[in-house]
Design brief:
Shape: globular
Oligomer: single chain
Number of helices: 25
Order of helices and strands: HHHHHHHHHHHHHHHHHHHHHHHHH
Radius of gyration: 25 Å
Largest sheet: none
Number of strands: 0
Strand content: under 5%
């Protein structure tokens, strides 16, 4: 086996830990409760997939008569590529520069390009799973509706396999040179965080300027000309990211000349960009890695009084554990970016998109919201806030983030309930930050009644408490403490995925419950009252269950 093949194999085993999972399930006969739980969790995303499929089907039959149906396929592909492009910053930073296996790999007779390529391939495999729920419904539904032949499905498989390459390479070409120069600074963690935020801000700015430049008045004549032009909507959607156009034309074109040409262009562009990244890796990768974990030896000596004050500061246990959680989150950029930045990113992206598109369609949307049913407005606003607050994975990785240092939590003279209380407050604070960010975005973009948005925020905050407790119980049941890469504690942690499935199941249960109540003829105020009461009761019960579970698990965990 080649060196690259061995590195990829080892990386995949470490990343997914399937051998360990198999051993625990079938040899030690532990964690078997995960099998029905995962199956039940998957059912939670069924309503979302059903709604997405229905949307694709409806839009297809609307756009098909005017020859613009390919825009639906482009929308799904572009959405998947943008998700990879944006969140790839966190994953590349973690995999390339904060993986503990680098200490073993750097001294070995392996070229920097081989190390980086192996990590890049493992990241691609992760992205296949990440964007599957976004891209595959569009590809499969469109292929069935459009009666795609062998060429359609063959090209779709190739495009999907190569789909993460261009977004990940773009981020790599930014991160690798940035880390080369950050490594010479004593303030590495701060510069990494600032650099990552700057990259996101630049992406927002470019998107905003591009949309502004493409704006302008639209009259009926221009609109008719636009809609009657072949694939005009496809090119409009993919204008900010041309690879999405190539990928769409390649899939839809099948074995035709146009389909094969676009497939060749897409594959060639991916290969060329990957080759450029390899060149950068040979010259800059190890220069950014070596010494990254070193710390400065210049530290101020504490006086006896200062040392005494720090040892016996008089802090309450919950406050001390809470501050420890904050430091654990802040000292690793990957944790901070995935935990805190993500809860403000989605509302910010939503706000920039709405403000950039504040033309005719946005005005229609404003009018529709202002004149809509108040119950639905409150519920949809609350749904957006809940999604923004629960997508960070902080609660479902609370104990896993401690890693090998969890033994400290077991030996300190602080009860399990006090520690769990502090961890809950930390995770809930981040979720509340997401609610506040979503509240701000909606208030600035839509003419929503202040009472309606306040009620929605109240629902979201109560629901966030419930989801935080559920996420913590999932992580407490089987914490991932033996990780070599900080990314594995969040991105590659099965508990985080289970937490998201649990969130989806909760939202599905609420949806069907409200739907059943509306059919009985109950008024909107009564439905809101029942929903508030149910959420408060469930939040309290989940908190009690979390505390009791912590008493039991803290004695069992090693």
């Amino acid at each position: 086996m080649s060196k690259l093949g061995a590195l990829v194999r080892a990386g995949l085993k470490s990343n997914f830990g399937m051998a360990v999972l198999y051993h625990r399930l079938f040899r030690e006969k532990k964690d078997r409760w995960l099998v029905p739980l995962i199956a039940l969790s998957l059912l939670g995303i069924a309503p979302m997939l059903y709604g997405l499929t229905a949307f694709i089907k409806e839009m297809y039959f609307i756009l098909k008569p005017i020859g613009q149906e390919k825009a639906i396929l482009a929308l799904g592909i572009l959405a998947g590529q943008l998700v990879i492009l944006i969140f790839g910053i966190y994953y590349i930073l973690s995999a390339f520069y904060f993986s503990r296996d680098l200490d073993m790999l750097v001294p070995l007779p392996i070229r920097p390009s081989q190390v980086l390529t192996s990590k890049f391939i493992v990241l691609m495999v992760n992205e296949y799973l990440t964007v599957a729920i976004i891209v595959l419904p569009f590809i499969v539904t469109f292929g069935i509706l459009d009666s795609g032949g062998t060429g359609y499905w063959a090209n779709a498989a190739l495009v999907y396999l190569v789909l993460p390459v261009i977004p990940l390479v773009i981020i790599s070409l930014i991160i690798v040179p940035m880390m080369r120069f950050i490594n010479i600074s004593r303030k590495k963690d701060i510069l990494i965080l600032v650099g990552s935020v700057a990259v996101l801000a630049a992406a927002f700015g470019i998107q905003l300027l591009t949309q502004k430049a493409q704006g302008g008045s639209v009259n009926q004549q221009k609109l008719v000309a636009f809609l009657t032009s072949p694939d005009s909507l496809l090119h409009k959607i993919g204008s900010n990211f041309p690879p999405s156009i190539w990928a769409t034309q390649a899939i839809a074109g099948g074995y035709s000349a146009g389909g094969l040409t676009n497939l060749a262009v897409f594959l060639a562009a991916s290969l060329m960009m990957f080759a450029v990244m390899i060149v950068f890796a040979e010259k800059l990768f190890y220069r950014g890695v070596i010494g990254l974990n070193e710390t400065s030896g210049r530290k101020r000596l504490l006086s006896r009084d200062e040392m005494s004050h720090r040892i016996s500061s008089g802090r309450r246990a919950i406050h001390a554990i809470f501050m420890r959680e904050v430091k654990i989150m802040n000292r690793t950029p990957v944790f901070l970016l995935n935990g805190v930045l993500i809860v403000v990113f989605l509302p910010a992206f939503f706000m920039v998109t709405m403000r950039a598109g504040a033309g005719h369609s946005a005005g229609d949307l404003h009018t529709m919201i202002a004149s809509g049913n108040s119950l639905y407005i409150i519920l949809m606003t609350a749904l957006f806030m809940i999604i923004c607050s629960s997508l960070n994975g902080t609660a479902s990785s609370t104990f896993s983030r401690e890693g090998a240092q969890f033994w400290i939590s077991r030996v300190i003279p602080v009860s399990a309930r006090e520690q769990v209380t502090a961890k809950f407050l930390h995770s809930y604070l981040i979720a509340a930050l997401g609610v506040v960010a979503a509240f701000t975005a909606i208030a600035l973009c839509f003419p929503v009644n202040p009472l309606h948005i306040l009620l929605a925020a109240g629902l979201a905050l109560v629901a966030a408490a419930l989801l935080t407790a559920i996420g913590m119980m999932i992580d407490l049941a089987r914490p991932l403490l033996d990780w070599t890469n900080p990314q594995k504690a969040i991105k590659q942690n099965l508990n985080v995925m289970l937490g998201m499935f649990a969130d989806a199941a909760f939202l599905a249960a609420v949806f069907f419950g409200i739907r059943a109540l509306t059919k009985t003829g109950i008024g909107g105020n009564a439905i809101l009252g029942l929903l508030f009461t149910a959420l408060i009761l469930l939040s309290f019960l989940s908190w009690v269950a979390l505390c009791r579970f912590a008493d039991k698990r803290y004695r069992e965990m090693e």
